[in-house]
UniProtKB/TrEMBL annotation:
<keyword id="KW-0949">S-adenosyl-L-methionine</keyword>
<dbReference type="GO" id="GO:0008757">
    <property type="term" value="F:S-adenosylmethionine-dependent methyltransferase activity"/>
</dbReference>
<dbReference type="GO" id="GO:0006400">
    <property type="term" value="P:tRNA modification"/>
</dbReference>
<feature type="domain" description="Methyltransferase type 11">
    <location>
        <begin position="49"/>
        <end position="146"/>
    </location>
</feature>
<feature type="binding site">
    <location>
        <position position="26"/>
    </location>
    <ligand>
        <name>S-adenosyl-L-methionine</name>
    </ligand>
</feature>
<protein>
    <recommendedName>
        <fullName>tRNA 5-carboxymethoxyuridine methyltransferase</fullName>
        <ecNumber>2.1.1.-</ecNumber>
    </recommendedName>
</protein>
<feature type="binding site">
    <location>
        <begin position="52"/>
        <end position="53"/>
    </location>
    <ligand>
        <name>S-adenosyl-L-methionine</name>
    </ligand>
</feature>
<feature type="binding site">
    <location>
        <position position="73"/>
    </location>
    <ligand>
        <name>S-adenosyl-L-methionine</name>
    </ligand>
</feature>
<dbReference type="InterPro" id="IPR033664">
    <property type="entry name" value="Cmo5U_methylTrfase"/>
</dbReference>
<keyword id="KW-0808">Transferase</keyword>
<dbReference type="Pfam" id="PF08241">
    <property type="entry name" value="Methyltransf_11"/>
</dbReference>
<comment type="similarity">
    <text>Belongs to the class I-like SAM-binding methyltransferase superfamily. CmoM family.</text>
</comment>
<keyword id="KW-0489">Methyltransferase</keyword>
<dbReference type="GO" id="GO:0032259">
    <property type="term" value="P:methylation"/>
</dbReference>
<dbReference type="GO" id="GO:0097697">
    <property type="term" value="F:tRNA (5-carboxymethoxyuridine(34)-5-O)-methyltransferase activity"/>
</dbReference>
<feature type="binding site">
    <location>
        <position position="119"/>
    </location>
    <ligand>
        <name>S-adenosyl-L-methionine</name>
    </ligand>
</feature>
<keyword id="KW-0819">tRNA processing</keyword>
Length: 259
């Protein structure tokens, strides 16, 4: 198995993803969807798996709401940073941490969970369809998958806007091992098909950063953030904008009638 381990670039990941307008925007749009998901469960305390949970920002916020969260990650460095954040925010009592590949996380669960978060991980995995099948086994009937993946359409659009014609013509090969550009950009139609073939019912699709990365005046990403967020929110759940997002967030439910 050669899935990406972030031990060597954990600090770069923290600085370049969450310390930027693109990270703020990603979290804002994601939480709009997560709030809807949580409302669907009512007021009960949930058992949540954050698979490939990284630095733990989302997991800690859910733990602060009173939910029980298991965060797993292949990277020991990411686990350490997530534990430190949980301690800092006073939510360690609602969290558990396991250093594990997603493929083996079922071994660490006493029973299936109500909600699985799988954000920006699928594009780093060699066999994405098989991993989605493994996550199906971790989810209780009626449970929900929150899946965010790196969109191949967005990558192509970004490079065309930048005028990288030769790079696009060459198939957009990954240039550096240590870059934060994912190993396996995913075509949305493939991801939707995998989910449906496994048995999930897709209930929502949201484009994440449908405009942000394409702005000609890059300073507007920071200077006009609130206006940008308002427009992203207005259009990000409509086509063609969903399919042009740099990421796509999919909400999918496991039917009650299937185990």
């Amino acid at each position: 198995m050669s899935d990406r381990n972030f031990d060597d670039i954990a600090e770069k990941f923290s600085r370049n993803i969450y310390g930027t307008s693109k990270g703020r925007l990603r979290q804002a749009i994601l939480w709009q969807d997560l709030d809807c998901i949580l409302q669907g469960f009512g007021t009960r305390k949930l058992r949540i798996l954050d698979a490939g949970g990284g630095l733990g920002q989302t997991a800690c916020k859910l733990a602060a709401m009173g939910h029980e969260v298991l965060l797993c990650d292949l990277s020991g460095e990411m686990i350490s940073r997530a534990q430190a954040l949980a301690l800092e925010q006073g939510v360690s009592g609602n969290m558990h941490f396991v250093q594990s590949a997603v493929q083996q996380v079922r071994e660490h669960l006493d029973s299936p969970v109500d909600l699985i978060l799988f954000h920006a991980v699928l594009e780093w995995i060699d066999e994405p369809e098989q991993v989605l099948a493994k996550l199906w086994e971790c989810l209780a009937p009626g449970g929900v998958l929150s899946l965010m993946f790196y969109n191949a359409n967005g990558l192509l659009m970004h490079n065309m806007v930048a005028g990288n014609f030769a790079y696009v013509a060459a198939g957009m090969p990954k240039r550096k091992k240590r870059t934060l550009s994912p190993d396996h950009p995913l075509k949305p139609e493939n991801v939707y098909l995998w989910l449906e073939q496994i048995g999930w019912r897709i209930t929502r699709k949201t484009g994440v950063r449908v405009f942000h990365d394409y702005l000609r005046e890059k300073h507007q990403q920071q200077d006009c953030f609130e206006e940008l967020l308002e427009l992203e929110t207005r259009f990000c759940r409509q086509e063609p904008w969903v399919s042009l997002g740099r990421y796509i967030h999919v909400t999918a439910q496991k039917p009650e009638s299937q185990g």
